[in-house]
Amino acid sequence: MTLAAAAALLLASPCQDSDKQGSGPMVGNGVQHPSGLPIVGRHAEREAVGRLLDAVRDGLSGVLVLTGEPGIGKTRLLEYAADRAAELRVVRLTAAETETGLGYGALHRLLRPFLNGTGRLPGPQRAALDAAMGLAPGPPADRYLVGLATLTLLSEAAADQPLLFLLDDAQWLDRESAEALAFLARRLHADSLGLIIAVRDGLGDNGLFDALDMHPLTGLPDPEARVLLSSVARRVDADVAGRIVTGTGGNPLALLELADALAAEQLSGVAPLPDPLPVGRLLEGHFQRLVRALPAETATLLLLLAAAPSDDTGMMWRAAGRLGLSARAVQPAAAVGVLGRDMPPAFRHPLIRSTVYAAAEPGERRRVHAALAAACDPVRDADRRAWHRAEAAEGVDDGVADDLAAASERARARGGYSQQALFLSRAAEFTGDPEKRAERLLDAAQAHLMSGDAPAAGTALDLAGADLGGPVTRTRELRIRATAQMFQIAVADVPAMLMDAVTRLGTQDPRLTWELLREALHAALVAHDTARGTSLTEVAAAVVAARHDPDPVVRGRDLLMEGLARRVAMGYEHSAPVLRTAMDLLAGGGGIGDANSPFAVMVAMACDDLWDVEARRRVADRLAAADRAGGALYALSMSLLVQAHYELWDGRLKQAEVRYAEFDDIVADTGFPGGGDLNRIALFALTGREAELRAAVLRITEMRSMGHGVLRLLAQYALTLFELGRGHYGQAMTHARAVFDEDPPACGNLVLPLIVEAGVRTGDRDSADRALARLEERAPLAGTPWALGTLALGRALTADGDDAQKFYEESVELLGQGPLALELARTRLLFGEWLRRRKRRSDARKQLRAAYESFDAFGAVPYAERARIELLATGEKARRRTEETRFDLTPRERQVAAMAASGLTNGEIAARLFVTASTVEFHLNKVFRKLGITSRKQIPRAIGEPGPETGG
């Protein structure tokens, strides 16, 4: 008979003190909980659970996060939810501290019953999930694509029967599983799927669940705590009950365990209570005393159970056999309530498991881990075997280190970067050679960075320290540090760090040198005048001077960076031809390579410097499509910002808001910094939302020390737009001068017509003339309709008589050739104002009416008001438009409607938006109801979007 079978027979036999031990079902993997006692109090939480269950039954979704100290009642509420989940399929998981480092381990356990449905997933999602679960070879899985695959897989399963997931001890989730589940939780909407998460206070979950519906649990109020105490078998004196309630803070588990630990005489008030009550470490101490009182064989078995994988009892029993443990060792632990009575054996409460492991002697822990390592299958459980060998080892052991390094490679192949970092860090601890140790720590730092943990990357680099040798290794260290700074949006020191790396590398690797220079230029363009230790001009000059072998795969990207460097170091006339070649190549579909998010920002700078909105649209759309297909959410977030700006230029302010809203969703999903209203400053300026604009500008000012100099100039540009809309030309000129003097590629050219306008209106002809001179020099070099139309506008503003009319008409004609509805409306406004001043009221009305109707339709409030006042001066009363029904749509509804209007199916929309098809259907139903339509064919006309026939 096997040990497992013997244990099953023993636990099936009658036990002493059975009235003290609940016999409820197992919750999750590894922990059992009593369900004999009724739940007391927690009315608000029980109502929240009831609402969630009702929503899931009705085809919607819901998420609850229960937080609190150990024993506060989180697990009991999970049991309550399970008991009331009639008609729902309930899936339970308890995370284990000993498996925190196993990347995607918890997710694999959770999804195991559903993995037969992966064949129905879209290709990229299936590939990502297969790689993460180790089911098939492939490139490292993108963690957010894994999250999307999890969402799709479970929503498909919920279509057959509504699902309820109960996740206990979520603080012990491995990082990759936690990120996937947090992504799932934030994207649930109408999927017949509920998720209740219990997480312990003080141990942290990296803030992944903070944006969800949080329910912090505190101690029970005095009356309810006394009711719970009265449910125990022994009588409790009223005064004693009051002291216990006060001393435990109403913690339910502490109440019950203390009542169980105290003698009957103490509970009845005959004997005195300990003073003070042992509450500080009450639960841990109580459980430790219970374990210490057990036979040695039982205590060893409990430690083995705490250290073993909770989903592989076979491994645990094999290890038990190696340790010479009898199956009868289970019975004493079950008798005193440390273990439950069901099979497989499991701890009665999660806290007992962690207490047993933490309290064990180090030598005993090593002995148990050695047995587990020996019990692991060397092929199927190679990673666990490596980990248990490490836990069993002492001192330098290169064999253990090599096993951990091999495990780290398998983790990387699955996209488990935090697991890779953990394995590498442990491998370094056992590595004898200092240089090899440092290299492993360097690899660990890179893996930490890939997982999004910049502080941990810094710690690993610090540990590598003086053992790093050679210029290539030192260069890599600096590059990782610089990338970590960029991830934390602290840019000021990054250019100097990367330039230092270039110096250290010397001539050893020209291609790497070019990559470092390219990254330094990106950082310097963002930092602008706030860079420390070097300057934008110095970095740009180094890029221009660099010589590298051209790579056709990334030729467009390299040319674009060279062009931007020439713009800073040599002037516009030297940069424009290079930028034009680069953009032609990129817009034609070539030369990007594997460019990521910073490249989208550089594309935006180049296109604005060339006045090329068409290229901006084509390249940004291409980047966004690739980002969506690959699940590259950070890259997508940057592409969305670039797309939002071209929507602004075309007067599609509502569509720009849709892009910003999706950007915010991604920031919330990923935890990436840099979100918030500072990205909307141009939108706020155009829509006249002054309070929000000035608050965003203030935040940008406060971020200056972090190295975001270009944001300050973009803020000045936005303020210029805002003040011109209100007709405050002097204030507009004050803001615009700062941009003109710095002349950044990001907005240095875009501000020129605004300066000409403000200068003419304020009588500052010198500023107007200097801005026009720069336009005369640059616009012909750019050669786009936007550039030439802007030049014509500048000439019109400064010309007299018939020449002005000719230039205005030329500007209107040129700007009308591209998606520049906002700029066209501004030109019509200025043309109409000029015509009115020349007493040509009829002609003025035509231009002013067109401008007013455009601005009013866009939602550009300041400019619409300015046009309305000018129109009134011609004798025509402007009719205020009634807000159209389509603007009642939320940003997400409008986005879904626009995609449906373009001919995409629900499944295709879901894949692009990282939601489920049922959620898309839910939003479309609301769109139909709000717009009063009954067919997808009616959507384009209802929302003013082109249909599929016109290429929308």
Q: Would you write up a description of this structure?
A:
With 952 residues, this protein is mostly helical. It is built from 47 helices and seven strands. Strands 4-5-6-3-7 form a five-stranded parallel β-sheet, with helices on both faces. Strands 1-2 form a two-stranded antiparallel sheet. Helix 4 crosses helix 7 (175-187) and helix 41 (821-837) packs parallel to helix 43 (861-873). The radius of gyration is 33 Å and the shape is globular. 56% of the residues are buried.
Q: Enumerate the strands of the largest sheet in spatial order, edge to edge or round the barrel.
A: 4-5-6-3-7
Task: Please indicate the percent range of residues in DSSP E strands (runs of 2 or more).
Answer: under 5%
Q: Enumerate the spans where pLDDT stays under 50 for 5 or more consecutive residues.
A: 1-35, 882-887
> Percent of residues in helical segments?
55-70%
Could you tell me the mean pLDDT?
85
Helix count from the secondary structure assignment: 47
Radius of gyration: 33 Å
How many β-strand stretches?
A: 7
Largest sheet: 5 strands, parallel
- Helix/strand class: mainly alpha
Shape: globular
In whole angstroms, the N-to-C terminal distance is 70 Å
What are its keywords?
952 residues; 47 helices; 63% helix
